[in-house]
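P.,

For your records, the input lines for the assembly:
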Amino acid sequence: MNLRQDIPAMLPEELIQALAGNAWVRIERIVSRGHHSPEGFWYDQAEHEFVLLVQGAAELELAAPDERLRLEPGDCLTIAAHRRHRVNWTHPEQDTIWLAVFFAQ
Amino acid sequence: MNLRQDIPAMLPEELIQALAGNAWVRIERIVSRGHHSPEGFWYDQAEHEFVLLVQGAAELELAAPDERLRLEPGDCLTIAAHRRHRVNWTHPEQDTIWLAVFFAQ
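Structure tokens returned:
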């Protein structure tokens, strides 16, 4: 499989696909096409998340400490469990492809 | 961190760096510069390995069933625990960057 291929022509919502994993780890491809978190929405996850931006561009916002990160291809970070975060922006004219690995705290 | 950056000028051996993980999962960056598995060497790992080729080019060989896979950026696969495999070739003039996620069987 190639992460840059097999993306639907229409993408009314973000595409989330499980690629591999077991009871303790989940590896997913996420494709965003201008999608971003709803106004005022913050993720607050029970698992740690390692995320890699494979293609495209995005802005992440994280709380405690407050940070805004502009992500380019190759950028990656680990978001600790329960660290609140949101996707402020993804490139509106280009598919933004993420690889995310969720793992237990 | 950007997976394409902070690569040493000299790379006598493959670079392997732990990025994140816990007792059940290990996320690593691997950088190859023409490196390949020694003649006759096969990996036989106790863990599953999800691997993504981020940059560069490589040929993987897998056993049972026997396969040779030419990998380009964005290509990914999961190598099941104890499936024998080796890296036949990586691009000699370009850094090949892998993201690998090892997780328990």
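Two observations worth noting. The first strand of chain A starts at residue 15 and ends at 21. The interface with chain B takes residues 1-5, 19-22, 24-25, 27, 48, 50, 52, 54-55, 72-78, 99, 101, 103-105 of chain A (CB under 8 Å).

Regards
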